[in-house]
Amino acid sequence: MAELEVEIVAADHFVWSGAATLVKARTSDGEIGVMPGHSPVLAILAAGELAITPTNGSRFTIQAEGGFFSVDKDRVVIVADNAQMDDSASAGNR
Questions:
Q1: CA distance 4 to 37
Q2: Strand positions, DSSP E, the chain
Q3: How far apart, in Å, are the Cα atoms of 26 and each of 29, 43, 45, 68?
């Protein structure tokens, strides 16, 4: 099964990294959903919720406060001004 390699960092701390099948985020142009095979994208990340569906475990969310969202060759890199995992989020690959 195809998967995304995801890395999420905030300006001053690591947030999460791991394999996922879906990443959803809010950008300055609207909502984006990324699955394996997605076209390359570079976007401005808007404040809001990131939703991650990891290959192992349950879907979880991260609250982000802006930054950048990049997709290239099944690799998603999110560099947020600030980001925190929701309390109910799985800490699987932290």
A1: 9
A2: 4-10, 14-27, 30-34, 41-54, 60-72, 75-80, 83-85
A3: 8, 10, 6, 11
pLDDT of residue 87: 78
Measured between alpha carbons, how far is 14 from 84 in angstroms, rounded to an integer?
10
Give residue 93's pLDDT.
47
Q: Is the pLDDT of residue 94 over 60?
A: no
In sequence order, what are the residues at sequence separation of 6 or more whose Cβ sits closer than 8 angstroms to the Cβ of residue 56? Answer: 19, 92
Pairing outcome for strands 4-10 and 75-80:
parallel
pTM: 0.89
31: Cα within 13 Å, side-chain hemisphere:
7
Tens digits of per-residue pLDDT, 38-72?
999 999 999 999 999 999 999 999 999 999 999 99
Is the distance from CB of 57 to CB of 18 less than 8 angstroms?
no
The residue type of 24 is K
